[in-house]
Specification:
It contains 10 helices and 4 strands. By secondary structure, it is mainly α.
Length: 289
Amino acid sequence: MIVQNKLTPLSPSEAAAALASAYQRLVGVPPSEAVLALLIAQSALETDSWTKIHNYNFGNQKAGINYPLIVQFRCSEVVKGVEKFFDPPAPECNFRAYESAAAGALDYLRVLHGRPHWWQGLQTEDPSAFVDALATPPKYFTANPALYKSALTSRLAQYGPLAEGALERPTPPPAVPPMGQRCSSTRQRSSMLRSVQGLSSRSPQGPVVGSDSLSASGSLLSESWLVPLEELVREDSGIRTSAALFNPVARHAGGSRLAINQAPRSRPLVRMLRSIARFFARAIRRSAA
């Protein structure tokens, strides 16, 4: 069924929280910090930093003719090295649509999990190996792999630090049985992520907030109609973004640096008690003198 095309922009922290929760729901354990950082970076690349995300499609994924919800909009494909644009109702303009960020994030991960070489590339925690896997047939994208790799690295430097904060938030219990292939829950940073976090990246202004994509009961919204994994495995995907999205991101150059794990300030009551203790100590010393 074709539904209305609409933009559903998310803040970087909302997107990161949705991806972290979806990974645990799908796999049964939290992602490593480096794996989550790669997912955040690729989703940012595919959706222009979630400002042009259509109907909560985190991976800008195409839809087969039998997909439950389809949205259509103008897009481009790289054909024989040349970018070619398509307009609805061309089948190249069919994209998957979702009713919530939680459902979109979960299906994005299911698509990656459905292709073993894509998933294994993700688990390397290395952006270069991940892109090489995505560029191996069946391909996730049709763009130049070198350009895609450069753009992914840029997004990783900008948004990768959000992974640590997203993993520190409590996530609801898995809504689906753990899959056979599980990734390590070890939270140690890999050397790749340490080098990325050392870059002079800046984050959008504003506080880090949690995702509001869950219902009051904490369950996923509208996930019952998601296509079974067996059908996802048989579908091919391709990049649907303009070449302009591969330019380095500089729109947030004036933003503040991301500050994670800042030490909490002392409570006012504690400061007052310490002041009283110092006062009495000085009084006792003066009396003894």
